[in-house]
Specification:
This protein is an all-alpha fold. The radius of gyration is 14 Å and the shape is globular.
């Protein structure tokens, strides 16, 4: 049961990160409540990665690194639970 909850929490974060990446490619109203929610949910996780690793050639690799870190954490938690 706990493993299923953890799985779904990680899946939601993966979707939010993917949505954030897509939003960075298109012009959309930043005051839209859904857009604000996505930014508020993902920024606390992305900001520390951005501080440690600057953008390379104007490309932000922090979402990729965050997905890799979340995947690693998910695998660790899956073995524990």
């Amino acid at each position: 049961m706990a493993a299923t909850i953890v799985y779904w929490i990680f899946q939601i974060f993966y979707i939010l990160i993917l949505a954030r990446v897509i939003l960075s490619w298109v012009r959309i109203n930043p005051y839209n409540p859904i857009v604000q929610f996505i930014y508020q949910a993902t920024e606390p996780l992305l900001a520390p990665i951005r501080r440690m690793m600057p953008a390379a050639g104007g490309i932000d690799f922090s979402p990729i690194i965050l997905i890799l870190l979340l995947s690693l954490l998910q695998r660790i938690l899956a073995t524990v639970l």
